[in-house]
Amino acid sequence: MIVDDNALKHSLKSYFGYDTFLPMQEEIIRHTINGGDSMVLMPTGGGKSLCFQMSALQMDGMAVIVSPLISLMKDQVDGLRMNGIAAEALNSSNDEGYNRDIMERCLTGKVKLLYISPERLVNRTLSLIHAIKVSLFAIDEAPIASQAGGTIFVQNTHS
User: Fold this and answer.
1) Rounded to whole angstroms, how far apart are CA atoms 76 and 16?
2) CA distance 89 to 113
3) Taking 50 as the threshold, does the pLDDT of residue 102 lie above it?
4) In degrees rounded to 5, what are phi and psi of residue 4?
5) Which of 75, 25, 79 is nearest to 48 (CA)?
6) Distance separating the N- and C-terminal Cα atoms of the chain
7) Domains defined for the chain, CATH in brackets
8) pTM here?
9) 3-state secondary structure of 87
C-alpha cells in the first residue's frame, strides 16, 4: 500500500496535535500500513500507542488492541474519543448490557479501535472478531517486557 505522506501528517496533527513524529514512530507506522508485523520496545512515553493508533486510522477495518490493564484501556479510549476517534473498551468494568452495545457498534462498523482484555478476547468475543474486518491486532503492554517500559506487538491482518 502506498502511504500518503499528507494523510499521515494530517492525521498526526488533527487527531493527536503533533507536528512531528517521535523517533522510529513514522517508520513503524509505514511498516505496519504496508503489511508488516512489528514488535516495538520503547521506554514509557516513547510513543508506542501512537504507532498502532495511527496505523489503524490509515487502514480499512477495525484495530483490536489487547491490553491487560483496564485503567490503561480507559485512559487510551478517553483520549481517543476526545480527539474524535471512535474507540471502545470491552472489559469486566463494563456492565454486560454496555458490552453488548459495544459489540453491536463493532458489527456495524462504528468502532475504529477496540481495546479488549485478554480474558474477554479468549472467552467471549472470538465470534465478533471473525465477523468483522480487523485491520490489525496489537498486544499493548506485554507483561514480559514491562520492566523495560512496555512493548507492543502488532500483527497486520492484511499480510
Assistant:
1) 12
2) 9
3) yes
4) -80, 110
5) 25
6) 11
7) 5-156 (3.40.50.300)
8) 0.86
9) strand
Q: Tens of pLDDT along 135-156?
A: 999 988 655 444 444 455 565 5
Whether the CB-CB separation of 136 and 56 falls below 8 Å is answered with: yes
Q: Which residues contact 9 (CB under 8 A, 6 or more apart)?
A: none
Q: How is residue 59 written as a grid cell?
A: 487502514
The closest of 159, 156, 157 to 28, measured between CA atoms, is: 156
Least confident of 14-18, 68-72, 95-99, 105-109: 68-72
**Residue showing cell 503492554:** 141
6-20: pLDDT as tens digits: 889 999 999 999 999
Specify the amino acid at residue 10: H
CA–centroid distance for 2 within its chain? 21
